[in-house]
Amino acid sequence: MPAPVASSPASFDRRAFLKGASTLGLGVALSPAAVLQGAGPAGTPRRRYAIVGNGSRSIMYQEAIERDFREHAELVALCDLNPGRLELARARSQQLGGRTPPAFVAADFERMIAATKPDIVIVTTIDGTHDDYIVRAMDAGCDVISEKPLTTAPEKCQRIVDARARTGRSCRVTFNLRYSPPCTHVKDLLMSGEIGDILSVDLHWMLNTRHGADYFRRWHAHKKNSGGLMVHKATHHFDLVNWWLGGVPESVFATGKRDFYTPKMARRMGLTGAHERCRTCPETNRCSFYVDLARDPTLKALYLDHEQHDGYFRDRCIFRPSIDIEDTMNVLVRYNTGATLAYSLNAFNSWEGYTIAFNGTKGRLEHSVGAPKPGGQPVSGAARIAIIPLRGPAREIEPWTGVGAHQGGDKVMLEDLFLPSPAPDKYLRSADERAGAASALIGMAANRCFETGQPVTIKDLVRGLGAPTYAPMPSHDIPVPMPGSGPA
Ligand SMILES: NC(=O)c1ccc[n+]([C@@H]2O[C@H](COP(=O)([O-])OP(=O)(O)OC[C@H]3O[C@@H](n4cnc5c(N)ncnc54)[C@H](O)[C@@H]3O)[C@@H](O)[C@H]2O)c1
Question: Per the domain annotation, does 474 fall within a domain?
Fold first, then answer.
C-alpha cells in the first residue's frame, strides 16, 4: 500500500526529483538572468513572490500574480515535493504569459530563496507543514503569506510566534471569509451597535455529503496533515467569530466523534466494507461516494497523473478504518469580552452552509448562508441577515453580494493582498499570525478536549502570543436602554 503524502521535506528523495526534473525539463539550475529584478510598467519594482505547495489552492495566487496583478507582482520561484505538480505550475505560468519561474524541490527551499530572492513566500502546502516553511522563510529574510490554518499543533504555533519575534518579518494569514460580502456586512452591522454588545453566539456549520466526504478522501483525513476538521476547517469559522466579536478566546470545552465516515457505515449502506481507494474499489457501482479521478480533467491533471512521485491518492475510501479525524464536533468557547460561543461542525449534512445568531444587549442578529427555504431545496451560497430587536419586529436586511469564490470574498482579499496601496479597511480584515493562532488554537484545544475530556485554557498552549488587532466594537460598559413594551 503506498504511503500517505509525505509531511516532511526530508522524506522526499532529492535524487529522484533531480532525475525526474531533468526528464521534465524543470529549471532547477538557475542562470543569473533568471533572477533579475522585474519592474512594473511605470518602472516601479514589482514585489517578488515564491509559492511553496503547488496544488489546487496555489492556482488562485499564481493567477493573481501572473495575470490579475502582474503590474505589481512577479512570480520568481516554485517549490513542491512533487515534480509533476511543479511542472504543471510552470506550464500554467506559460499559459498565463508570465516568465516561467524556476522550480525547486522542497529540500532546496533555502537554495531557492538565496537564488531567486523573493520578497514574500506564499505557503500553500498541506497544513501540517505550514510552520516549517513559515519559519524557514522568515529566517531567510522573507515575509510570508500563509494559507489557513496557520498551523496544526501548539508546538508548531510556538515556533512561528518565536520566529516572528526573532526575525521581525511579517506573517499574513489569508482568512478569505472575512472578505466575503455577507460576512463583512454582518461585521458592519455588529460594529454599528444596533444589537448592542454581544453576550453569546450560536454557530452551526454544515458540510454536505459531497464536500464533507471529500475531506475523508484526501490528506485531510489524518490529523498529522490537517489537525482534523477542528483545525483545517473550523479555523475559518473560529476566526470569523473572533473577528466579528473583536474578542480573544480564553477557554475551550469540546466533544468530537467519527460516526458517519466509518467501516461500519459502509456495511450499513450495503457495501461489504471499506476499501483502499475508488480506483481499485470492487464496489464502485454500489457506492454513491465513488470518484473517478480519470474522468475529471482537473483532478487527473493535478493528482492522478503525478501519483507515482509521492504516492498520494486523491480518491481514498471515505470509510477506511485508518482515518483519524472527526465528522461530528461540538465546542464551547469563552472570550475575554465575557461572550460565549456554542459551535457545531457536522461533515455529513443534507445541506452546505451555516446559521449563526448573535445575542446582543439590544437584540439578536441572525445570519445564514445556504439554508433551504421552508419546503424547498438548499440554495447554494444564498445569504440571509435579519435583526430582531428585544421586544420589536424583525427586520430582514438584503445582504451585500459579490461574485466569485467564497461569495466574492477571494477577489476582494486578493486586491488587499496584491495592490501596492490597498484601500483603508475599517473592518481590519487583514490578519496576521496572532489572528491565525487565535483561531487555530481553539481547534487545537478542542482536539485536546476530545482526548482528555478536560477544558483547555488557550494561554497554556503558547507563550508570548499577542492579541490580534480588531476594529472597535460596542462597549460592554455603556448604558443599555430598557427594552420597549412591544410584543412579548
Ligand atoms: N482559504 C481557503 O478557502 C482554502 C481552500 C483550499 C485550501 N486551502 C489551504 O491551502 C493549502 C493547500 O491546500 P490544497 O487544497 O491546495 O491541497 P493540495 O493537496 O491540492 O496541494 C498541496 C500541495 O502541497 C504539496 N506538498 C505537500 N507536502 C509538502 C511539503 N512538505 N513541501 C512542499 N510541498 C508539499 C503537495 O505536493 C501539493 O502540491 C492548505 O493549507 C489548505 O488548508 C485554503
Answer: no
Measured distance CA(281)–CA(139) in Å, rounded = 46
Among 155, 175, 195, residue at a domain's last position: 175
User: Exposure of 344 by Cβ count < 10 A (0-12 exposed, 13-18 middle, 19+ buried)?
Assistant: middle
Pair 78, 226 in one domain: no
466 located within any domain: no
User: Is there a contact between 201 and 340 (Cβ–Cβ < 8 Å)?
Assistant: yes
Structural domain boundaries enclosing 284:
264-310
Pocket flag, ligand 1, residue 56 (CB < 6 Å): yes
367 and 437 in a single domain? The answer is: yes
Q: Return the SS3 of 347.
A: strand
Question: Edge to edge, what strands does the sheet with 143-147 contain?
Answer: 103-105, 73-80, 47-52, 120-123, 143-147, 171-174, 431-432
Q: What is the pLDDT of residue 373?
A: 79
Residues 281 and 154 in one domain: no
Do 297 and 332 share a domain, yes or no?
no
Question: Count of CB atoms within 10 A of residue 195's CB?
Answer: 21
Residue 312, helix vs strand vs coil: coil
Q: Are 248 and 362 within one domain?
A: yes
Query: Residue 389: CB within 6 Å of ligand 1?
Result: no
Q: At residue 235, what is the residue type? A: T
CB 335 within 8 A of CB 441: no
Sign of CA dihedral 209, 211, 212, 216: positive
pLDDT at 33: 30
CA distance 274 to 285: 14
Pocket test for ligand 1, best of 13, 104, 126 (most atoms within 8 A of CB): 126
What letters, b where the CB count within 10 A reaches 16 and e where it falls short, cover 411-439? bbbbebbbeeeeeeeebbbbbbbbbbbbb
Residue 227 included in any domain: yes
Asked whether residue 156 is assigned to any structural domain, the reply reads yes
How do residues 388-397 score in pLDDT, each as one tens digit?
999 999 999 9
User: How confident is the model at residue 112, as a pLDDT?
Assistant: 98
Look at residues 276, 310, 344 and tell me which one is the last residue of a structural domain: 310
The grid cell for 280 is 481499485
How far apart are the CA of 239 and the centre of ligand 1, in A?
19
Is the CB–ligand 1 distance for residue 223 below 6 Å? no
Task: Return the closest-CA partner of residue 116 out of 147, 140, 144, 97.
Answer: 140
- Count of domains observed in the chain: 3
Stated pTM of the model? 0.92
Check which CATH number belongs to the domain holding 68 and give it.
3.40.50.720
What is the Å distance from ligand 1's center to 127 Cα? 7
465 close to 437: Cβ distance less than 8 angstroms: yes
